[in-house]
Write a structure and sequence with these properties.
The protein has one domain (about 5-95). Helix content is about 80%, strand content about 0%. The chain has helices spanning about 15-35, 35-60, 65-95.
Amino acid sequence: MRDSDARPPAVRPRYVWTVVWVVLVVAAGLFVLYEIRRILVWLLVAGFVAAVLSPAVSILERRGFRRGLAVAVVTIGLVLIIGALLYVFVRPLVSQ
């Protein structure tokens, strides 16, 4: 038998349905990720902030603070620093 006489493999309905379902599931997954993108961004930002502040919390823990109190002190300190920076930079802009 020659190569030109070879028949292409048959496409079975099962293969078609498998491809259709895979495409639909992937599309649904991408749609869900698109819908919750804001939540995912906030989770990413929260994880980054936690990773950045972890050394400061560890230092306070080594100095005898309980972990909850150390987290509260670092968080309040961060809020005060951000507030002071905003005050220093925004006040001249408003007065001008």
